[in-house]
């Protein structure tokens, strides 16, 4: 899921002065460059998880901004960037040709859409940089044995979509074991593409759904989880509302069923939030209903899930950050069955913009700041060197990549290294995010690695 659009001690400020890239231009942080294809042979094993990094500003051949996606596997011991793959429109089987400012990789999502046991990659490209004649497309690249990719299909845009693929979210909305893909279509419409065994051969079933508000001003976020607790994944859509008297963003649950996602009906349970937000879905209080967690400015608000949708009356502010929150992800970091929440605060406070990620842990009464963990580059053994304007936490993701039922944290600093961009991955442990033994990856100059990321365990 993607939404459009600190605490710093004297010790950290000291690091800023002595250790950052800008202070020592010749110095490079210890990171694994991932903009080129990996050179290592794939091991004779299947990955346990996959981290997808969309790099829409990436250069392909002589085409600037053609865009590519870096796929980083995990074989059960932490992400393995040496075995990365790079997918672009010159990759075998991928339809289309690279073009300047094509922006391939603007949105990425992963899932097993053909249910063959290999995780597939969905790539959304709205083509906004190329003018109105490119209304967007979604490409599904199929995974195969040993982490290879060789076949893909591009789903043409429907006539009523003009921002197709700008935001993607994956779930099994009809619970048939084939992952399904929800894609932004236009200001108030989501298109759902149902997974099927024949996806490579013929067009999948697609359906357009209203995202909720009567006067939508643009979908800003999509996330998936079983809010109603009936075994079918539900889609949670966040949509701007075009209402001068009451501007804001509406959160709607579109319920899954045996027939797939069904348009909203009955009682209005849609909360309205004031600020452009980011949302995640997970069962923070472990009552069998996934909860919707949204950031609203510097606050984190939890809307408990119920069999009828969201309990707006039971909503609570689980945490107030000292500065603006930029990104949010939900997943179970410590494996206790309660979903946890990662918050990226790239701008920080007081003009110090190295950025940080705060992890809030779920419990019987939901999310609170008790026991919160603050992650920053170089802090408590985490990789990297905190530099002013790095902006760690511009995006965050939580996903169990190594297969131990604890979510790993991926956090990006797209501005780091003068726009080279960096992504830090730290493993989930029973005691929370493990700051030691983390991996730091970095991109090519001016490609803002980490601006787009998504992670998923293998099926
Ligand atoms: Ca597959
Ligand atoms: Ca399905
Ligand atoms: Ca937890
Ligand atoms: Ca894990």
Automatic annotation (TrEMBL):
SUPFAM superfamilies: Integrin alpha N-terminal domain. The keyword Repeat applies. SMART domains: Int_alpha. The keyword Oxidoreductase does not apply. Residues 1-23 form the signal peptide. It comes from the Bacteria. Keywords: Glycoprotein, Repeat, Signal. Residues 81-106 are annotated as: Disordered. This is FG-GAP repeat protein. It comes from Actinoallomurus bryophytorum.
